[in-house]
Fold each of these.
Amino acid sequence: MNYDKIVCNCMSVTSGMIKEAVEGGADTLEAVQDATGAGTVCGACLDDVERLVKEFAAGHDR
Ligand code: FES
C-alpha cells in the first residue's frame, strides 16, 4: 500500500495518517474523523476513509 496516497483531498489526509490514527486508538470512522479531519469537509472520501479504517483496525495491513 502507498501510505503517501492522499485519501481525503479536502484535508490532505494520507492513508498513512489514517493508519497512524487507527493504531493510536482511533478505530472507528468517527474517531478517525476527529483525529485527522478526514471526511469532515465535502464527504466525498468517506467510503474510502471508512474502508481503510476497517482494514487497519482489523490488522490487515500489518
Ligand atoms: S475529500 Fe475528504 S472531506 Fe472532501
Amino acid sequence: MDHPVNHFENDLVAALSSNVKHISPKYFYDVQGSVLFDQICDLPEYYPTRTEMSILSENSKAIAQHIGPQAELIELGAGSLTKVRVLLRQLELPTAFLPMDISGDYLRAAARDLQKEFPKFAVSPIVADYTHDWTLPDPLPETRRRIAFFPGSTIGNFLPAEVDTFFANCRKYLPGGALLLGVDLLKSPQIIHQAYNDAQGVTAAFNLNLLNRANQELNTNFDFSQYAHWAFYNAPQQRIEMHLVSLKRQEIELNNQLFVFEEGETLHTENSYKYSVDKVQKIAAKQGLKAGPVWTDPNHWFGLLWFDIPDFETTKGEKNESYLE
Ligand SMILES: C[S@@+](CC[C@H](N)C(=O)[O-])C[C@H]1O[C@@H](n2cnc3c(N)ncnc32)[C@H](O)[C@@H]1O
C-alpha cells in the first residue's frame, strides 16, 4: 500500500467511536476512488468539471500571461491531470510541473503520461497530503515564480477553519508566488443536488468505495448492500453533504473493537461548500492574499480566482528571502 500518510485506521476508529460519525473525504482516493471520480467528471449532471474546463479553454491565454514566463506550476489534488494540460500548452517556458496528490499510484501513472506529452520540462509528482506540511523541493534556479493551481473546487471539501489554514499555507510555502483557485459558486440548490445524485449511480459507487477500501486495507466487515448513498444540499451551511446511511442495526469490526451503526445512523463522508467570489476573496485576504482577476462562465456557476501571494519582504518587513528577482 503506497499511501504516504496512512492515518486511515486511526481516523476511521475515531469516526466510528463518535456519536456523530464523520471522516475526511481524502480517504475516498485509492486507485479505484480516483477512477470513479474521473467517471463522475464525465456525468451529464456533474457540471463543475465541464464548466471549469470551458473557463480554462476560453481564457488559457490570459491566464498564461498572468502566470508569466519560466514559472513552476504546482497542482494540488492533481488527480488525472486533465485540466492542467490546457494551461501547460499555453505557458511560456515553464520550468517544472509538480503535481501533488494523496492517491499515489494513480498520480504517478498520470504524471508519466504527462511527461511523455511535455518532454521539455520536468514533471515531478509529489505523493503527499496537503493538509499536512507541504514538502516542496527547492525551485530550479531558472524559475521566476511558483504558481499553485488548485482546481475542481476541492477547496469546498475543507471546513471553514481548514480553508484559513490552506490560505495560510499558500503564504507560508509560496512566498511571492500566486494561486489559481477553482471554486464552485452558489447557484440553484436543485442543480447542485442533481450533480451529487446522478442517475447512473456513479457518485453512490464513489461514496460506497470508502467502505470497500476499509474492507481491503483495514480488514473491516462492511456489507455495502446495507448502506445507502445520501447526498443533499444543506442550504443554511451552503454545502452538499454526503453520507452513507446504515439500513439496519449492524456491527463493524475494526482493530479488535466492535462499533455499532444503528438503523438510519450515518457516516458523514464529505462536505462540498459552495461560495460567492466575494466570500472566498475575503477569507483569502485575512491571510494576506491579494485578489486578482476572476474568470467565470456565462452562468457564473464556477469561478477561477487569481490571488497574488506576498513575499517575505512584504510579509515580515525582513530581507526578501524568496528566490524572486
Ligand atoms: C475533487 S478531486 C479533483 C481532481 C482534479 N484536480 C480535478 O479538478 O478534476 C480531488 C483530488 O484531490 C486529491 N486529494 C484529496 N484530498 C487530498 C489531500 N488531503 N492531499 C492531497 N490530495 C488530496 C484526490 O486524490 C483527488 O485527486
Amino acid sequence: MMKRLVVVLSLCLAPSAFAAEDVTEVWKAKCKSCHGDDGKAKTKMGQKESIVDMSQAAWQTSVSDAEIRQVISDGSTRNTKMKAYKEKLTAAQIDSLVGYVRTLKAK
Ligand code: HEC
C-alpha cells in the first residue's frame, strides 16, 4: 500500500522536472543553431540575418508572450528563415520555449 503511494507520488512529481530539462534540449536541438545558446544570435545565421539579441531588456519588454508564441508557432512574416514550429513541436513545448526565451534576458 505504502509502496504504491510512493509510485503514484513520484509519477506526479516527475513531469515538471522533465519539462525544465526538456525545454533546454529543445532549444539546443532546434533553436541554438541560429539564436545561439544565450539567445544573443552570435551565430553565422544571426549575423547574416541580423537576428535580434533576445537578452536585451528593451527587446524583452517590446514583445508579449503571445507574440513570442505566435512567431514560434507560425514563423516570422518578416523573415522566412524563422520557420513555423507548430507541426514539429507540441503546444506544451512551444509554451515552455516562450518561458525559456524569457530566461534569456540579461541579468
Ligand atoms: C534557421 C535559423 C533559425 C532557427 C533554427 C530558429 N530561428 Fe527564430 N528567428 C530566426 C530569424 C532569422 C528571426 C528574425 C525574424 C524576424 O526578423 O522577424 C527569428 C526570430 C525569432 C523570434 C522573434 C524575434 C523578434 O524579433 O520578435 C523568436 C521568439 C524566435 N525566433 C524563436 C525561435 C525559437 C524558439 C526557435 C526554436 C524552436 C527558433 N527561433 C529557431 C531564425 C531562426
